[in-house]
Write a structure and sequence with these properties.
alpha+beta, 7-stranded antiparallel β-sheet, tRNA-splicing ligase RtcB, 389 residues, 33% helix, 11 helices, globular
Length: 389
């Protein structure tokens, strides 16, 4: 751990100057307590650094959660082993079945309610405070439930250190969460500008507990976080259904982890109740299960938290980008991508070039930096990878 300043601690051995400067700016805000914690995967974000943990007293920064509210991971360990999947000539048919069952890519959604389980999850969301906001901003949110998105979101079938098969996916609150977040980020910015509050970055605009706008954001935030959690559940149900059909046997889940890594929650740290925003970080409280994915061609990890108080009981959410998407497309070729994906069933396309593993930090270095934050329980390697354009 490095103490960059009294109010900024870093666990990132790989940290560029721009990211460092951005985190320093966030740490200067007067309502930060006790300090901002930078995770090993920290990299430049909008307003707040991706891979940062930001504790605030009586205030929240909507951009410190970001626009993909509730984004996170779900991982399920099954009874199947490598002998059930590796080497089968029809592995591509499993990938294609998953691509048919789950809408992929930005803006894609279901054409109808998938099944009764989907309807149950929708009904739960309809009863929650905040559903009215979702209806107003994205009338089709019900059809978005059970869709993946694009970018670094993915679905995988993987093997652990015992060659046990895992189903594994990464996604969040989709278009409805993005629209809700964007709305409240703008409200915070407008309020700060109206009150002539001087900010180190306009995207660090905040809302105060004394304002009704604060509680409106918390309401919508909590709804979107629940949507994201149920969205992952919904996709996992479909993924396991595809796996069961392909193998001709039902799936028995022996272990399940479903965790956010873009969210805000009230927690107590150093004797003070704070709003803790994890933007690209997971809860790593003592014995808390979590998931830290690598890139589309590298290992991922199922972990348990160690409860490092200085890190605000947090850990990284993944590898963290080294190259922006545009820079990755300039730096790497399709041949580079093909070479990095040898042995994995995936959809061969230039669309994923900006997701090449080399565009990310070395996941082994990230995990080494996180050694005082989490214990590794399982290491996963991909067999099948599914992504949206």
């Amino acid at each position: 751990m490095q103490e960059i300043s009294e109010r900024l601690l870093s666990w990132a051995s790989i940290l560029d100057d721009q990211t460092r400067a951005q985190a320093v700016r966030a740490a200067t805000l007067p309502f930060i307590f006790p300090h901002v914690a930078l995770m090993p995967d920290a990299h430049l974000g909008k307003g707040a650094t991706v891979g940062s943990v930001i504790p605030t007293v009586e205030a929240v920064i909507p951009a410190a959660v970001g626009v993909d509210i509730g984004c996170g991971m779900i991982a399920v360990r099954t009874q199947f082993t490598a002998s059930d999947v590796v080497g089968r000539p029809d592995l591509g048919s499993l990938r294609k079945a998953i691509e048919r069952a789950i809408p992929l890519s930005a803006g894609r959604h279901n054409q109808s309610i998938f099944d009764s389980g989907t309807q149950e999850r929708i009904s739960e969301l309809e009863e929650l405070d905040g559903a009215d906001s979702a209806d107003q901003i994205a009338k089709n949110w019900r059809l978005q439930l059970g869709s993946l998105g694009s970018g670094n979101h993915f679905i995988e079938v993987s093997l652990d250190e015992d060659d046990r098969v895992w189903a594994f996916l990464h996604s969040g609150s989709r278009g409805v969460g993005n629209k809700l977040a964007s709305k409240h980020i703008k409200i915070a910015r407008d309020l700060c500008e109206h009150r002539r509050i001087q900010l180190p970055d306009r995207d660090l605009a905040y809302l105060s507990e004394s304002e009704p706008e604060f509680w409106a954001y918390i309401r919508d935030l909590r709804w979107a976080q629940r949507f994201a959690f149920l969205n992952r559940q919904e996709m996992m149900a479909r993924l396991l259904g595809c796996l069961a059909s392909w193998l001709g046997r039902g799936v028995a889940a022996s272990e399940t982890v479903n965790c956010h890594h873009n969210y805000t929650a009230q927690e107590e740290h150093f004797g003070t109740r704070v709003w803790l925003s994890r933007k690209g970080a997971i809860d790593a409280s003592p014995d808390r299960p979590g998931v830290i994915p690598g890139s589309m061609g590298t290992r991922s990890y199922v972990v348990t938290g160690k409860g490092c108080s200085l890190a605000l009981n947090s850990a990284p959410h993944g590898a963290g980008r080294m190259f922006s998407r545009s820079a990755a497309r300039r730096q790497f070729s399709r041949a580079d991508l093909e070479a990095s994906m040898v042995g994995i069933e995936w959809r061969h396309t230039d669309a994923f070039l900006d997701e090449i593993p080399a565009a990310y930090k070395d996941i082994d270095q990230v995990m080494a930096d996180a050694s005082e934050l989490v214990d590794v329980k399982h290491a996963l390697r991909q067999v099948v990878n599914v992504k949206g354009d």
